[in-house]
Amino acid sequence: MGTLVTLDLPKDSPVADLPWVITIGALGDEEDWEPVVCGPYERPHALALARAVVADEDLLAVVEPLLPLVDADAIRDEIELSRSAPDSAPAEEEDPSFELRREPTAAEVRAAFARIAANLPTTG
Fold first, then answer.
1. Residue 80: what pLDDT?
2. pLDDT tens for the chain, residues 1 to 124
3. Does residue 12 belong to any structural domain of this protein?
4. What range defines the domain where residue 65 resides?
5. What distance in Å separates the CA atoms of residue 23 and residue 21, rounded to the nearest whole number?
6. Nearest C-alpha neighbor of 1 from the set 62, 59, 63
7. How many C-beta atoms lie closer than 10 Å to residue 86's C-beta?
8. Would residue 50 count as lying in a domain?
9. Which DSSP symbol is given to 11?
10. 124 in a domain, yes or no?
11. CA distance 88 to 13
């Protein structure tokens, strides 16, 4: 069984509504391969897909928000915010607030892609 790591978010966090990506990599040092980055997904889909992938294999899945920042200044601001924030440990997959306990269907993921695209910023 692998490991799933994600952010521990309060229930009302606006970050939960952002697009999310999954990075899958080797769990230990025995394997040497480039991690696979997938997404964007809605958070429940990202968590369920990552959970399904690592369920039977020794892999590490990191599920994190994708910040649709539109310019270098916005990226720098986010970096500065991250640097100034207190360290917090990522949550393990056992968070009971995960809404989707089954792997989403391909149709559900495709529908979510359309919702994500519709919510991306179109102006700077």
1. 92
2. 899 999 988 888 999 999 999 999 998 888 889 999 999 999 999 999 999 999 999 999 999 999 888 889 999 998 998 899 776 555 554 444 455 568 888 888 889 888 888 887 765 5
3. yes
4. 3-119
5. 7
6. 59
7. 4
8. yes
9. T
10. no
11. 15
Give Cα 98 to chain centroid, integer Å. 12
Q: What is the dihedral of CA 72, 75, 79, 82, to 10 degrees?
A: 170
Output Rg (C-alpha) for the chain, integer angstroms. 15
What pLDDT, on a 0 to 100 scale, did the predictor assign at position 96? Answer: 46
Count of structural domains, the chain: 1
| Helical (H) or strand (E) element with 47 | helix 43-54
Element (H, E) at 28: none
Q: What is the helix (H) or strand (E) element at residue 110, kind and residue range? A: helix 106-119
Does a structural domain hold residue 56? yes
Give SS3 for 84. Answer: helix
Report the Cα 10 to chain-centroid distance in Å.
15
pLDDT in tens, 93-117: 444 445 556 888 888 888 988 888 8
Which residue spans within 11-102 are E strands per DSSP? 20-26, 36-41, 59-65, 91-92
